[in-house]
Amino acid sequence: MAHVRGLEVPVCSQVTYQDNAKKSKGYTVAVSPDESVLGGFCTSMDLTALRNSLPTNDDNFEPAPTELRIPTRHFESGRKAQKRIRSELRTLQLTPTEDDDDDIIGHGAPSTQPKRTHPAILRLYEELGTSLSAYDKSTCESMSWVQKYAPGTAAEVLQAGREAVLLKEWLQTLKVQSVGTGNADAGGAKGKTKSSAAPKKKRKKDKLDGFIIDSEEEANEMDEVSEDDDDWAPTGSGLTKKTVIRSGDAAAKGGKRSRTPHECTKELGFEIFEINPGSRRSGKDILEKVGDMTRNHLVQQHRADPTAEADEDEVARDLKSGKQGMMTAFFQPKAAAASKKSTETTKGSQNQKQSLILLEEVDVLYQEDKQFWATLTEMMAQSKRPFIMTCNDENMVPLQTLNLHGIFRFSHPPTDLAIDHCLLAAANEGHLLKRSAVEALYKSRNNDLRATLVELNYWCQISVGDRKGGFDWFYLRWPKGSDRDENGDVVRVLSEDTYRKGMGWIGRDLTATCLDPLESEEEVMKQCWNSWTLDMGDWNNSLHLQSWADDVTRSATEPSQRLDALAALDEFCTSMSDADLISSGSLGTRFQEVLDPELPEIPTKTRDDFIVGRRLLEADPKPAASTPSVGLSISLKSLTRQRLFKLSSTPDVTSSSTLKPLAEDRAVSVLGDSFEHCTTPMTRMDLALAFDPIAVNEKAAASSHLDPSVFDRTMKLIVLDIAPWVRGIVEFDNKLMQERLKLSNLLSEGGKRKRMRTTRSAYSALEGGERRTTRRERYFGDCLNTAFVRRTAGDAWQEAVEAIRPKESAESAPSSPSSPGSSMA
User: Fold this and answer.
1) What is the pLDDT of residues 517-544, one digit of tens each?
2) Where are the annotated segments for Disordered (predicted)?
3) Which of 38, 137, 212, 327 has its CA 20 to 30 A from that of 779?
4) Which of the four pLDDT bands, split at 50, 70 and 90, describes residue 187?
């Protein structure tokens, strides 16, 4: 092969372009350079100044933006992290010893400690000193914080009462120890197990103790939880195998109601058969799912001797490989036939597999869930397994038709306990947070512990704001042993102030970078309304106008200045009224929302999608997504505040700062105050829950007509006249009971505390008076709920009662039969 050169053909680089496009039917739009927006922008842009503003040092990374909140990095051991987070905790009880580095925690503390550390807080605090996060191990975290830091035992449930422990003790008494097999040996073993495991009979207490009920009808009634541990001691499997678990009347959130049964059953080895509202729950469906389970026990078959299985595997391998014996060996007698009986393999023992049936949200039933309660009642009557039911509204459950062991009412965990749990969970993941920030987040989520942990799990990330992609946050752990401090503890990566107060409440990209304060204020007001349904432009509540008025009155010495200030305030109020008119009710909340009367009636099939047992109220709000009323109202309110700020003639610094444009920090402060002082309006249902038990006389005979009651009249009459009188009596009974408990503790002989007797004879002997003049324990009996009655007056009334208690303690005796004074009302 040879190369030939010099025969190049000239190539024409010109290409003829033929425009085959059709002729346009319209005129071509031409924009002159004077009218071009892009041209004007390019002309005004100074490229030289822009080039000089960029960093010239290419060896260093560009600093992070000023609006980015960057956490502080620490490389410390878990023991030092405990010292950092200890000042933020309130429920952790520590006893300092001679060495300040070592502390006695929880139950190891002396008896002088007034409180014990909660087991969940104690476990997280101890794990902080020894455990490492997934980032420290250079692994990926496969679990969320909600699952990872869930309670592991019944004692770790964040609850002020003993509901979780009582549930565990109840399940422990229902554990079946053996199952009959049908033969004589098994029957004898079963009988022996029952006799050996029979609990010791308790001596019946005296009738005056208030525990023995003679009437058969009252035997099924449930009393309140006793403070005596002997009353809750396990007494065998003779208890009723049903119970109901529900959240408190405040609709406690955070998963305690649903999580507690799972933790108790996991600790005791139970298997749960759960039926939730996500599936059909008619009578037929329930029978198909758990019908056979309620009539039989689960038997757990233990595995036999592994040597037999090994022999079978060896024979199978011989057959597969073709390694078989000769045919003559089949006819020869077996020499080991006599010894085969002695080496016979024993069968695997049978053991009872503990199980229960969990019914979630039994108050959420639909039209298709027919015969739910009828089938469930029949199953519970003949079931061999315990039932646990959860609900949100106890009024939707037919308690009269159910034979229950108990009703456990769960409520929100104590605020300090929940916040400490969140702080320690974040610390175990390497994030040291301020208590004020976590407390504000917890209140913004309506005291929902699960939602708070999910929010912290989202924001708390390692190496936030690192310009090198997180390389500055890595800690070298090779060679082995180089990652230990002077005390021999493993060093871990800690991020301080990863989450700060108000993060996630307001979008910070537009508010922090906006140069115009009025534009930034309008953006903050819009976000507060769209995200939190809070009218930030209600300056009478968000701004302290009273302080501004006091400053103007103090600084205005001449009448003309006061007249100008009054005219400015009049203009401010007029503009605020105009803003309310422009909004056309779009900024209304709760009972102030505008309803849409033009919507058609809901079809019958659609009504079946709503919960049975509640009245369906067709009150849909009027949609106002495309109307500019909200934006116009917010803009007018912002301009009104700015106008008052300019017309303010006072040079005082306080008043000037009060009327300044709304910035992000002030908006976060106003939002925090709204979460903390959120008040729920009192409705007629609240009054019904409180006073309906005393609306009808208990001794009234049954009749075909309803007796007239004052509680059936107007709400104004009940709130102003009847409710204060009832609250006064209830509060007097509560104060009297506290004084009686104090006397009982003073007269006790020491030792184990016993339950105080509640008869009038016992009270008269305790107080040293006559029985006929001794006031009974409760004026209205046990039918009235004290918490519901107190709720009808709010928190301010209770504080007022606490303020006047010292004054009345010296005026009235505890055995006085008279009703409380009018000052209690």
Assistant:
1) 899 999 999 999 989 989 998 888 787 7
2) 97-116, 180-262, 804-825
3) 212
4) very low
> Is pLDDT of 270 > 50?
yes
pLDDT digits (tens, 9 = 90+) for 160-185: 888 888 888 888 888 765 454 444 34
> Containing H/E element for 690?
helix 684-691
Question: What letters, b where the CB count within 10 A reaches 16 and e where it falls short, cover 89-116?
Answer: bebbbbeeeeeeeebebbeebeeeeeee
- Indicate whether 612 pLDDT > 70: yes
Q: Is the pLDDT of residue 23 over 70?
A: no
Tens-place pLDDT, residues 226-246:
544 444 444 444 444 455 555
Cα–Cα distance, 495 to 427 (Å, whole number): 9
Of all helices (H) and strands (E), which one includes residue 244? strand 242-247
Strand (E) or helix (H) holding 800:
helix 794-809
Considering the domain architecture, whether residues 628 and 602 belong to the same structural domain is answered as yes
C-alpha dihedral, 811 to 814 to 819 to 823, nearest 10°: 40
Q: Helix, strand, or coil here: 290?
A: helix
User: Which candidate, 257, 262, 202, places its Cα nearest to that of 232?
Assistant: 202
Q: Which residues pair with 73 in a beta bridge?
A: 495
Same domain, 639 and 569: yes
- Sorting pLDDT into bands at 50, 70 and 90, what band is 192? very low
Residue 782 belongs to a domain: yes
Q: Percentage of the chain surpassing pLDDT 90?
A: 22
State whether 760 and 625 are in the same domain: no
**Token match 């757990």: residue?**
300
Ramachandran region, residue 413 (left: φ > 0; alpha: ψ -120 to 50; beta: rest): beta
Sheet with 491-496, edge to edge strand ranges: 72-77, 491-496, 431-432
Structural domain includes residue 533: yes
The least confident of 63-77, 332-346, 448-462, 621-635 is 332-346
pLDDT single digits (tens) 301-326: 545 454 545 555 555 565 555 554 54
406 with 417, same domain? no
Residue 494 bridge partners (DSSP): 74
Is the domain of 239 the same as that of 388?
yes
Render the burial of 297-310: b for 16+ CB within 10 Å, e for the rest.
beeeeeeeeeeeee
The 407-410 sheet, strands edge to edge: 271-275, 355-359, 387-391, 242-247, 407-410
| DSSP strand pairing (431-432 vs 491-496) | parallel
What pLDDT sits at residue 496? 95
pTM of the model: 0.74
Q: In terms of residue numbers, what domain contains 573?
A: 517-676
724 with 793, same domain: the answer is yes
How do beta strands 350-353 and 298-301 pair? antiparallel
Nearest to 225 by CA among 407, 414, 411: 407
**Do 579 and 617 share a structural domain?**
yes
Is residue 587 in some structural domain?
Answer: yes
Listed residue (322, 311, 174) closest to 242, CA to CA: 174
As given in the structure block, the two tokens for residue 680 are 């729920």
Label residues 664-689 b or e (16+ Cβ within 10 Å = b): bebbbebbbebbeeeeeebeeeebeb
Look at residue 543 and tell me if it is in a domain.
Answer: yes
**SS3 state at 819:** coil
Q: Report whether pLDDT(72) > 90.
A: yes
**Rounded mean pLDDT of the chain?**
76
CA-nearest of 709, 760, 734 to 820 is: 734
Task: Count how many domains the chain has.
Answer: 4
- DSSP letter for each residue of 76-132: EEHHHHHHHHHTT-SS--EEE-SSTT-EEEGGGS-TT-SS---HHHHHHHHHHHH--
Per-residue model confidence as pLDDT tens digits over 373-403:
999 999 988 888 889 999 988 888 998 888 8
